[in-house]
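Subgroup meeting minutes
Present: P.N., E.W., G.H.
Scribe: E.W.

1. P.N. recapped why we're keeping a running log of single-chain structure predictions: easier to compare across weeks, and new members can see raw inputs and outputs side by side.
2. G.H. added today's entry (230 aa).
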Amino acid sequence: MKTAAGKTALITGGSRGLGRALARELAGAGWTLVIDGRDAAALDAAARAIGGDVTAIPGDVADAAHRADLARAVSGGLDLLVNNASTLGTTPLPRLAEQPVADLAATYATNVLAPLALIQAVLPALRERHGAILNISSDAAVENYETWGGYGSSKAALEQLSNVLAAEEPDVRVWWADPGEMRTDMLRAAGEDADAAPPPEEAAAAFHRGLIDGRPASGRYRAADLAAAR
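Output recorded in log:
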């Protein structure tokens, strides 16, 4: 494993699931980390479990003041931004004919607008270090799964935002990546059999090795493909 002393990553949604798993991956490689999460107690517990040089900032990425706090925390330099925090939106997941539009607006605020706003806030620092942005997507962004239209469309919007950003920012790597099903609270809340899914550590390891260390060209990637290419 490559060591990354002197490198800094900002990971949203770092208190559980894929965010926490990826933070542990990077901490083990010597990265300095800034993580956030809405549940302050869970975030503090995650920071202790991750170990290493970790700054935990509780808050909601949809809140502008919180994003400003995150940007200040990495003002000394940033090599990687991971937009991992997201919401399912309405649960149980409804068909589009019954999707509350107000809920969908809130989903877009968290899953699309907040990542863009955070990118805008830290992009100068990423440009300076020729850093990278990893936007966590989903197969629901490209598949027509019934009842997943609200969440899936928000991830599709994030993917196209990433696609255009990659064209506009040639000095920064921009990856939008599908981790696949994972054993997470989010998958369980969606009504899926989360216990049958692989742990998020598998996707985290694939992203660490195949994207963050490997630094391929900007584009869309799947954790399963990155793992298979090992």
